[in-house]
From TrEMBL:
Native source organism of the sequence: Metabacillus malikii
TM ranges: 49-71
Keywords associated with the record: Membrane, Transmembrane, Transmembrane helix
Domain of life per record: Bacteria
Span of domain N-acetyltransferase: 2-140
Keyword Transcription: no
Protein name, as recorded: Ribosomal protein S18 acetylase RimI-like enzyme
Length: 144
């Protein structure tokens, strides 16, 4: 059974392990730990096994911003990113939710589009030669 819950300190090692499988190192350990401590990290589980997580902020022009979505490579293409995004938008502390991905990340662009996010702008010069595409979704759309 697929579930989404708020991450706890007990989840830290598993989240760092999943992140390391994706990026090849544990450089985001402190970031993940702080996000858990501040209650800004949610996890996707399959039968109580963590398969992915999402970290968000609420300081993007006073709106929620999904800063990181990571799904274990062995669990991709099974709807976990969508599950995390749906949960985040429906429980968002703000009515507007933003996120972003590089122009080169076609797979993540498709995930945003499938989940009803729309392009909201482009930021140049973050990654040389690979602009960041900003995406937006309104929580109000879910309420109507």
């Amino acid at each position: 059974m697929k579930t989404v819950v708020e991450a706890s300190n007990d989840d830290l090692e598993k989240l760092v392990q999943i992140d390391s499988k994706v990026i090849g190192n544990t450089s985001r350990r402190n970031y993940i730990e702080r996000s858990i401590e501040f209650g800004k990290c949610i996890v996707a589980k399959e039968n109580d096994v963590i398969v992915g997580f999402l970290i968000y902020e609420v300081n993007f022009f006073e709106c929620a911003f999904i800063s990181l979505i990571i799904v274990s490579p062995s669990s991709r293409r099974r709807g976990y990113a969508s599950l995390l995004m749906d949960y985040m938008v429906s429980s968002s502390p703000t009515t507007k939710v933003f996120s972003s991905t590089n122009r080169s990340n076609i797979n993540m662009q498709k995930v945003f589009e499938i989940n009803g996010f729309i392009q909201s702008g482009v930021v140049e010069n973050l990654d040389e030669g690979d602009p960041e595409i900003i995406y937006f979704k309104s929580k109000i759309e879910l309420l109507n």
